[in-house]
Structures are given as structure tokens and as C-alpha cells.
Amino acid sequence: MTMYFKFFKNAFASNFEYKFDAIFRGLVQVIEIVVQISVWTALYYFNNNSGISKDNIDLKVMIYYVIISAGISILVNNNVINIIDKKIRTGEISSDLIKPINFQAYMFSIATADNIYNFIFRFIPVLLIFIPFYGIYIPSIKTAIIFLISLINGVLISFLLAYILGLVGFWYLSIWHLERIYMR
């Protein structure tokens, strides 16, 4: 277990080499959220002026949804398919497979490190920017527990699907197109 934690630490530390990338991705995340909030605000304004019912869903709830879904997408998305594809094309996978480690656990530790890094340096700043404007919605304990269980299951399922599609690379020359299909 400590070996996989070392893989986790190395993958997390390697993300610090590209600080500008993290800053740029954080800015892009803020812009995406602002655009989505603007679209929802325009839709709600149109609905209020046209007399169309909005089914008792408040604009503030939709804004919380936009912000939370951005955080979920950061945690669920991973780069496993591209990593495995690169390892197969370069032949690096052969040295990984002869090591006395579980390759799936190794890839999971790398994906987890990337996701936690992205969550800390992309989503937490987004929260700090938007909390003063929209406040914090605190759900009930029951809702929070169900959400966390669902989120953990979603992260695991997303990793396993990406891992399986990455392993398809053993039979095909390139699998970048599978990653494009999977992420959309």
C-alpha cells in the first residue's frame, strides 16, 4: 500500500511542474462557469417575462448545480486512456507489466493524484471566487452522505471504464479516438 502511495505522491508532485497550466485551466473553468450562469440567468429572465413556468426551481439552485457539476466533472474525468495509450506506443508498458505491482492499482493511484490536484488547484479557487456572490448551500447530512457515496462510485466507475478502454490499445494501433468518444 505504501508503494502505491509513493506513486500517488510522485504523480501529484509532477503536476506542480506545470504551474501555468493549472492557473490557465482554473481561469478556463471560471469562464466556463460564468458562461453557464449567464445562460441560465438569461433563460430564467426569458421564462419570467414570458409567463412560462420554471417548475419551482430557483435560479440560485441552478447556479449551485452549475458550480457543483464543475467540481464533479473535475473529479470524474481522468487521463487513464491517454496514459495507457502512450505507454503502449512507446513500449514503456512492458517494463510496467514486469514490475511486481498491480498495474490497475498503479494507474488508479496516478489518476487519483491527478484528480485531487485538479480539484485543489482548479475547483477550490472557483469556489472561493463564487462563494461571495452566491453563498453556500449546505445540504442535510443524509443528502451529503448519499452524494458522497454516489460521487465515490462515479469516480470508480469512470476510472474502470477508462482503464478498460485503455487496455483496448493492446489490440488497436491507437486509441485516442476511444478517449474522445468516452469523454463526450
TrEMBL record:
<keyword id="KW-1133">Transmembrane helix</keyword>
<protein>
    <recommendedName>
        <fullName>ABC transporter permease</fullName>
    </recommendedName>
</protein>
<dbReference type="InterPro" id="IPR010390">
    <property type="entry name" value="ABC-2_transporter-like"/>
</dbReference>
<feature type="transmembrane region" description="Helical">
    <location>
        <begin position="63"/>
        <end position="84"/>
    </location>
</feature>
<feature type="transmembrane region" description="Helical">
    <location>
        <begin position="22"/>
        <end position="43"/>
    </location>
</feature>
<keyword id="KW-0812">Transmembrane</keyword>
<keyword id="KW-0472">Membrane</keyword>
<dbReference type="Pfam" id="PF06182">
    <property type="entry name" value="ABC2_membrane_6"/>
</dbReference>
<feature type="transmembrane region" description="Helical">
    <location>
        <begin position="144"/>
        <end position="173"/>
    </location>
</feature>
<feature type="transmembrane region" description="Helical">
    <location>
        <begin position="116"/>
        <end position="138"/>
    </location>
</feature>
